[in-house]
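Entry 14. Structure prediction run on the chain below.
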Amino acid sequence: MADNRNRNRGASTWVVTGAGLGVLTLNSGLAIYRAGGDDPASVVFVAGSYLALLLLFGCLRAYERAAPGSPARERARRAVWPLTALLTVAFAWKVAALMPWPVAAVVWGLAMATTIGGFFALFVQG
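Output returned:
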C-alpha cells in the first residue's frame, strides 16, 4: 500500500513539474514573440534566462537523484551556484535599469548579497 502511495506521489510530482515547465516555455515563447525583431537584446535575455533556468532545474534534479557524498552530487552542487548567480545578476540588471539610481543601488546590493550568501551556503558551510 505504501508503495502505491509513493508511486502516485511520483506521478503527481511529474505532472506538476511538467505543467510548470510548460507554462515557463509558453511564457518565454510569448515574450520572445512580443519582442520580435524590434528588441534583440530582450530576445537574448529571455532565451538566455530560459536556458539557464532549464540547466538549473536539470542540475537540481541530478543533485536530488545522486547518492549523498557521490561525485555526481558534488558536480551538480557546484553547477547550481554559477547558474543562480547568473540569473540573479541578469534579473538585477534588467530591474535596475528601470529604477531611479537609489533604488537601483538597493537592487544591486541585494543581488550581490544573495549571490555571496549562496556561495557561502553552498561552499563554505556546505
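The two ends are 36 Å apart (CA to CA).
Filed with the rest of this week's runs.
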